[in-house]
Amino acid sequence: MLKILHIVFSIIVISLAAYGLITHDYQLNFLMIFFLGLIMLILGIREFRQKRNVYGWFLIGVFLFSIFVSIQNFVLI
Question: Which of 18, 35, 45, 54 has CA 20 to 30 A from 61's CA?
């Protein structure tokens, strides 16, 4: 299940990045950052399952920071 979510979120991020590069419209960057944060959450859960807690906590921290940045960008738009 996590692998499927990882692939789906990666496709969303790649498509949003390609859209921004092609159209030079960067108003959807907050969504790209949000989905990148969700990818970090999934990677953190994988690391916890493999008993690598330090990397897991690091990725959870990156997830929280990216969600914070995404919300900040959404409010400023």
Answer: 18
Q: Quick check: pTM over 0.85?
A: yes
Rg (CA), the chain: 14
| Residue 37 within a domain | yes
Residue 75, pLDDT score: 87
The two three-digit tokens of residue 68, written as one number: 């914070």
Q: Is residue 64 part of a domain?
A: no
Q: Could you tell me where the DSSP H helices lie in the chain?
A: 2-23, 29-49, 53-76
Domain count, the chain: 1
Rounded distance, CA 25 to CA 7, Å? 24
Inform me whether the pLDDT recorded for 34 exceeds 90: yes
Whether 19 and 25 have beta carbons less than 8 Å apart is answered as: yes
